[in-house]
Amino acid sequence: MAKSDVKLLGAWTSPFAMRPRIALNIKSVDYEFQEEDWLVSKSELLLKSNPVHKKVPVLIHAGNPICESLIIVQYIDEVWSSGPSILPSDPYDRATARFWSAYIDDKWFPSMVAFLFAQEEDAKKAAIAQMEEGLVPLEEAFGKCSKGKAFFGGDRIGFLDIAFGCFLGWLRVIEKAGGIELLNETQTPSPLKWAERFSSDIAVKELLPDTDKLAEFRKKAQAKMTANN
Amino acid sequence: MAEEVLLFGAWASPYSHRVEMALKLKGVEYKYVEEDLANKSPSLLKYNPIHKKVPVLVHNGNPIVESQVILEYINETWPGYPLLPKDPYERAIARFWAKFIDDKCLLAIFKASWGEEKEREKAAEEVPEFLNHLENELKEKRFFGGESIGMVDIVANFISFWVGAFEEAFGSELLTREKFPKLTNWTHQFVNNTVVKESLPPRDKLVAYLRNRFGGRNVSK
User: Fold this and answer.
1) How far apart are the first and last CA of chain A?
2) Which A residues 91-110 touch B at CB under 8 Å?
3) I need a surface site. Which of A95, B82, B160, B183 has the fewest CB within 10 A?
4) 0.90 surpassed by pTM
5) Which chain A residue's Cα is nearest to B49?
6) Cβ separation of B89 and A94 shorter than 8 Å?
7) Separation of alpha carbons B152 and B102, rounded Å
8) What is the structure's pLDDT at B221?
9) Contact B66/A68, CB-based, under 8 Å?
10) pLDDT digits (tens, 9 = 90+) for A121-144
């Protein structure tokens, strides 16, 4: 398929934008990437392709825009069906992967946002505690999903690996800033080891942002948002 | 092995009704277990330890939770009536709107009805904006799913029936024919569908329940 047929609007700082990129890598699909500098302004194309949310990522395939990161990942899985599967084949395993992905986005991610935007020490501490607590169920989830293999998806990275793994960049920024270990030997030994494997995977490696660069970006973003208020 | 399908639900919950509708559309036999949400059963807590909520579908002993996850599971497990389109792009669009309804619409409607003062004002502005997106998405279709009810229609059940009950319970105005003619038409089509009608709770009972449960709080006009 011609490269120009597949375009992804994203941002190097966005864990959500990373998800479809990993999926496209898994399927060995060539695509054109457009970096959105969302701190500065949003492109016409982005606003036109995602008028409801005006956010990245957006996949534009043969002129059709698809929005919402996990919906895009499922789309990629279904369209490029000859490549390695991203979602499991069994409906119950699929439901399990979807459940945990929804948990990460709806329950865990907000505590990460809370930390990143917290001003007071108390608020920061509370957010950290919530983040830590929120990660604990993933130990059991890993056991159930991986069935003894290396990834949530089994032998190869799959839907839930992508859904959770995209946050590792920001996770490391927070760990460094807070002097803590969110994924640790005591409560989450399996996800801790998984994180290393995930980060080194060929479909992921080049996409995970450098921790220091991301921390720099965070400072810039905080300054800008404070200035805007 | 004989198939066993259990649904833990609550009569007033739109989320629970979504699953009932889907099972009925697929013609799946199931046993319904009514949960008293003020006094949750040990079974519910066992099957849904993370969220402790209804609905929970238990298929041959395996629990599936979160209504949209359950809908996808039902669609993939039982053949026959398609809840989602076959085409991947159409599917992605359907999933987009289903997510929009839950993440944005419903949340805004709740906040506009009984959120904190500051939240309510903002939400009250958002509700018509969000409903407008849905109004535009309907275009000339009978249902969001086209000629027949699909996943988006099912997920929008809240808008078709519960919103009306809200409006009656609290004297608020969320979905008017003048502002949202297509959505209003859709509401009538949807609630008059045979399968849907079977699964809806009695309107008077729901209005009374909402008044009783949320009536003490401030409500928007």
Assistant:
1) 46
2) 91-92, 94-95, 98-99, 102-103
3) B82
4) yes
5) A137
6) no
7) 10
8) 42
9) no
10) 999 999 999 999 999 999 999 999
Partners of residue B70 in chain A, C-beta under 8 Å: 95
Is the interface score ipTM higher than 0.90? yes
The first and second tokens of residue A61, run together, are: 């395939």
Give residue-wise pLDDT tens across range B11-68.
999 999 999 999 999 999 999 999 999 999 999 999 999 999 999 999 999 999 999 9
Q: Long-range pairs for B64-68 at CB < 8 Å and ≥24 separation?
A: B64/A92, B64/A95, B64/A99, B65/A99, B66/A98, B66/A99, B66/A102, B67/B15, B67/B16, B67/B18, B67/B19, B67/B155, B68/A102, B68/B98, B68/B99, B68/B102, B68/B151, B68/B155
Residue in chain A closest to B136 (alpha carbons) equals A52
Helix, strand, coil percentages in chain A from 3-state DSSP, rounded to 5: 60, 10, 35
Closest chain A residue to B131, measured at CA: A52
Kindly tell me the burial class for residue B2, based on how many C-beta atoms sit within 10 Å of its own C-beta (0-12, 13-18, 19 or more): exposed
Do the Cβ atoms of A68 and B99 come within 8 Å?
A: yes
Instruction: Give residue-wise pLDDT tens across range A108-121.
Output: 999 999 999 888 99
Helix residue ranges, H only, B3-41 = 14-26
CB pair distance less than 8 Å for B73 and A94 = yes
Whether the predicted pLDDT of A152 surpasses 60 = yes
Kindly state the percentage of chain A with pLDDT values over 90. 88
Structure tokens at B72: 């996808």
Residue ranges of E strands in chain B: 5-9, 31-34, 56-59, 62-65
d(CA A214, CA B64): 37
Per DSSP, B36 falls in state -
Interfacial A residues in 16-55 facing B (CB < 8 Å): 52
A95: chain B residues, CB-CB within 8 Å: 64, 69-70, 72-73
B88 touches chain A (CB under 8 A): yes
Peptide bond before residue B55 is cis, with ω within 30 degrees of 0: yes
The verdict on A67 touching B (C-beta cutoff 8 Å) is yes
CA dist B158 → A71, B17, B22, B154, B201 (Å):
22, 9, 15, 9, 12
pLDDT of residue A44: 95
pLDDT of residue A184: 94
As to burial, measured by CB atoms within 10 angstroms (0-12 exposed, 13-18 middle, 19+ buried), residue A5 is middle
Q: Which pLDDT belongs to residue B1?
A: 52
